[in-house]
Design a protein that fits this description.
About 50% of the residues lie in helices and about 10% in strands. The chain contains 13 helices and five strands.
Length: about 260
């Protein structure tokens, strides 16, 4: 199953993934009824969360990452790099790309605040608030949708509206995983031209299962959402077709990469 998932990444990187997973189970001779019941039960969610928490406690922020006798090796590396790293560690040395032993009991040092450029998709709150949160999002990312729908309302109510936080949102479409995320980012920005960025932002995340995986057909759904928001749908459609926000979205993505950000949210 591990191999099938990686070989067919483009097939399941949307909200219909479970149907595809059941197909792989059938192809591999598994009991599909038991497999589907396992998916729906969520029995491994706590185990996966524990792995995630463990990675964070080791200072790991990207994948793939490897701990070789406690020393961190990051990135998809050729076999020769693994061989050299293993030889180095076996001989008592330190992997060249790693300047410290990773100890679970020692959390990573507080990072230096990053400097951001002025281009963003949307912002809310007081720019003079004592805290600024910058989120990089991918509209097709299920975890981003969960954040937007479950966590964001609390942040807005308790922090943004209270004047404690200035919240900035930037785009980071992960094109290889989520090929429709970029068009969704453009749709939200086009709504922003009519002062409805956050309203479109919310609808796009709330309807992720409708437009994700639709390719060019997603634009028809974005236009439908624009009509529901009482936008000027002709101006909105013209904006989608113009490509005028393509450079801004890419600028956000490039900024994220320069900061070492490779995941969302």
């Amino acid at each position: 199953m591990h191999d099938a998932l990686f070989e067919n990444l483009d097939q399941w990187s949307n909200n219909n993934a479970n149907t595809v997973f059941v197909g792989y189970a059938d192809e591999n001779g598994l009991d599909t009824i038991s497999f589907e019941a396992c998916l729906e039960a969520g029995k491994y969610e706590e185990v996966i969360q524990a792995d995630l928490d463990s990675g964070i406690s080791h200072g790991i922020s990207g994948t793939p990452s490897f701990l070789i006798n406690g020393q961190l090796l990051v990135g998809a590396q050729p076999a020769a790099v693994f061989e050299a790293a293993i030889d180095t560690v076996t001989e008592g040395g330190t992997i060249a790309s790693n300047d410290r032993q990773i100890e679970p009991s020692q959390p990573p040092a507080a990072p230096t605040p990053a400097a951001f450029n002025d281009e963003f998709a949307g912002a809310m709150g007081d720019p003079q608030a004592p805290v600024t949160i910058v989120e990089f999002t991918d509209y097709q990312c299920p975890y981003c949708a969960r954040h937007s729908l479950d966590t964001m309302p609390d942040i807005v109510r308790e922090m943004v509206d209270a004047g404690r936080v200035y919240y900035i949102l930037k785009d980071l479409p992960l094109d290889q995983l989520h090929p429709d995320a970029r068009s969704a980012a453009v749709a939200a920005r086009c709504a922003g031209e009519q002062e409805m960025y956050w309203e479109m932002h919310d609808i796009i995340f709330d309807t992720q299962d409708e437009w994700a995986g639709q390719g060019a057909g997603a634009n028809d759904l974005y236009i439908e959402y624009a009509v529901n928001l009482s936008l000027d749908d002709e101006a909105f459609e013209a904006c989608l077709a113009s490509g005028r926000f393509d450079q801004e979205v890419e600028a956000n993505a490039n900024e994220a990469r320069a900061l070492g950000i490779s995941g969302t949210p």
